[in-house]
Every structure is written in C-alpha cells, then in structure tokens.
Amino acid sequence: MTRSPRLIHLSHEHASALKLALAVRALTPEDPSALPAVAQRIRDTFERELSAHFEEEEKHVLPRLEAAGRTELAERTRRDHERLRELADALATPTVEGVRAFAAALTAHVAFEENIVWEALEPGAGMSFDPDAI
Ligand SMILES: [Fe+2]
Ligand SMILES: [Fe+2]
Q1: What are residue 28's DSSP bridge partners?
Q2: For residue 39, how far is its CA from the centre of ligand 1 (angstroms)?
Q3: What residues are neighbours of ligand 2 (ion), with CB under 5 Å?
Q4: pLDDT along the chain (134 residues), means of 10
Q5: Is 5-123 CATH 1.20.120.520?
Q6: What pLDDT does 1 receive?
Q7: pTM greater than 0.85 (yes/no)
Q8: Residue 91: CB partners within 8 Å, gap ≥ 6?
Q9: CA angle 1, 15, 52 (to 5 degrees)
Q10: How many angstroms is it from 30 CA to the middle of ligand 1?
C-alpha cells in the first residue's frame, strides 16, 4: 500500500524526535552540569515542533483510527500526548529524572505510532523499530 504524504511527513518528524530523545538520554545523574541546557532544549523543541506535531495527529490521524474502529489506539495516543505535555511542562524545574522520563516516554510513543498506529492505518507504513535497541 502507498504511504500517504501525511504519514511520511509525520515519520520524518518522528526521526528528529528520536534524535532529540537519544541526545538527551546521554545526560547522567553523575554529571548534571548540562541539565539546564538539556531541559531548555526539550522545552524549545516541544514548543517549536512537537506541540504542532501532536496537534496534527490529533486532528488528522486520530479520526482515521476512530473511523477504522481502533478507538483504543486513539485513546492511547491522546494519553501519551498528555503525558508528554506534562513531562515537558515539568521541566520548567529541570531534573535529570525528568529529562530521562521525557526521553523514554517520547521514544516509546514514537515506537507505538510507527509500529502499531501507522501499521493499523496503512500496513507497511511504519518504520518498525525496537525502542529498546536505540
Ligand atoms: Fe503522537
Ligand atoms: Fe507522532
């Protein structure tokens, strides 16, 4: 099946979200000197890219899931987005745990969308990757 331009575009944004998650995962509790900059990078990226990405999915992808009878996938997507918004907001007071929780939740969310949501909409469309392997 051909991938729709919208899913291709959202997948490109997933790739940059994964790069962010990977970069900020490098922050360790032993060396928290980079914490303020890392937390700020997450908040900036959230505002500049992720927030609009989530809105696009909520507006255009979730109705397709609901139309296909996959309301459980739409609900999990909404829950994940809310959680990620909360985790990004919480970084107004940066902590290493908060950064790592955000990175882990973002990676898991992208894997969920690429491996399960995209596949439910357009078989063969997902990147198909193991979040534990990156
Ligand atoms: Fe999403
Ligand atoms: Fe997404």
Answers
A1: 31
A2: 20
A3: 113
A4: 85 94 83 90 96 97 96 98 98 95 96 95 81 72
A5: yes
A6: 53
A7: yes
A8: 39, 42, 43, 98, 99, 102
A9: 90
A10: 31
Distance 76 CA to ligand 1 centre (A): 9
Ligand 1 mean position, distance from CA 87 (Å): 14
DSSP state string for the chain:
-PPPHHHHHHHHHHHHHHHHHHHHHT-BTTBGGGHHHHHHHHHHHIIIIIHHHHHHIIIIIHHHHHHTT-HHHHHHHHHHHHHHHHHHHHTTS--HHHHHHHHHHHHHHHHHIIIIIHHHHSTT-S----GGG-
CA distances from 81 to 4, 57, 60, 74, 110 (A): 22, 10, 15, 11, 11
Residues around the ion ligand 1 (C-beta < 5 A) = 57
Q: Are 80 and 109 in contact (CB under 8 A)?
A: yes
Give the pLDDT score at 40.
Answer: 95
- How much is the pLDDT for 91? 96
Q: From the CA of 73, how far away is ligand 2's center (Å)?
A: 13
